[in-house]
Write a structure and sequence with these properties.
By secondary structure, this protein is an alpha/beta fold. It has 7 helices and 13 strands. The structure holds fe (ii) ion (2 copies).
Length: 281
């Protein structure tokens, strides 16, 4: 790896992308089990608890801190049913990363606005405001080495599906933040992938981001070199967009997923990005 400052291809920022932590608490309180949460709880009991191994959180935090990156971007789905107790565990994990010297940015996933009540109460904001890149998305930050990062919105509560949606004005604003970013490759982060099918996953209609194709086109048409990083599918992938060659799509595994948990180390250079997959489980 070449990392001498100033040389071609020098790494100017290292970013760790983690996503879909899915901290989970089981509650049998009748008030809390109302509506969708009941289904979520049953689903949780039947499947999720066996899929996620949260016992490795401390060693994972240590591994992240050893990567030599300055920044962690956490791409959403911190919780399973948007319970306060789940957000508290997520907060403790992110705080632990911060205490290890990492700058942490967090955006919500669909599970963090799991119920209409959680959305109305602003549960994500209440617990994780200190890690948000801005009060609202889309937003742009510039990393210490000069890499611009644009955070895209798109999550909403649903009665049954896990479908997302991005408003047309937010698509235009996201593309504008990319187009007007400081020179060089731009990292764009959202919870939902923009490609519905890759070699690694296929997303049904009920799980997709609504207007994903419009966002994809708007990003592609900026002409900027873009790495679009997402989670949600719990699978890792990296795909060059066949319609927009300046746009590469990558997804990261769910961090604590048993058997294939892990994260992505993104090396940002003047010319583009290199994604290195790290496994922890
Ligand atoms: Fe998820
Ligand atoms: Fe998700």
């Amino acid at each position: 790896m070449i990392d001498d400052a100033g040389s071609p291809g020098a790494v100017r920022d290292r970013v760790l992308h983690i996503t879909d932590l899915h901290f989970s608490r089981i509650t049998w309180s009748p008030r809390r089990l109302a509506n969708k949460r009941l289904l979520g709880m049953l689903n949780l009991r039947l499947r999720r608890l066996r899929r996620f191994d949260l016992s490795v959180r401390e060693q994972t935090a240590d591994a992240l801190a050893r990567e030599g990156a300055a920044t962690v971007i956490a791409g959403g789905d911190f919780t399973t049913t948007s319970l306060d107790e789940e957000f508290q565990e997520a907060f403790a994990f992110l705080k632990g990363l911060e205490q290890r010297g990492l700058k942490v940015y967090a955006i919500p996933g669909n599970h963090d606005v799991y119920t209409f009540e959680a959305k109305r109460r602003g549960s994500f904001e209440q617990h994780l405001a200190g890690f948000m890149p801005a009060e609202r998305l889309p937003a742009r930050v510039v990393l210490a080495g000069g890499t611009p990062v644009v955070f895209a919105p798109g999550v909403k509560p649903n009665l049954l599906s896990s479908r997302g949606s991005i408003a047309r004005r937010d698509i235009a604003e996201t593309a504008q933040l990319v187009a007007e970013a400081p020179p060089g490759p731009v990292l764009v982060v959202g919870h939902y992938p923009l490609l519905f099918r890759t070699e690694a996953y296929a997303q049904g209609y009920m799980h997709r981001l609504g207007r994903a194709n419009s966002l994809r086109a708007a990003l592609g048409e900026t002409g900027r070199t873009i790495l679009y990083l997402a989670g949600h599918v719990h699978r890792r992938s990296e795909t060059r967009d066949e319609r927009y060659p300046n746009l590469t799509h990558a997804t990261t595994n769910a961090l604590f997923y048993r058997g294939r948990g892990g994260y992505t180390l993104v090396e940002c250079t003047d010319e583009g990005f290199c994604c290195r997959v790290r496994e922890i489980l």
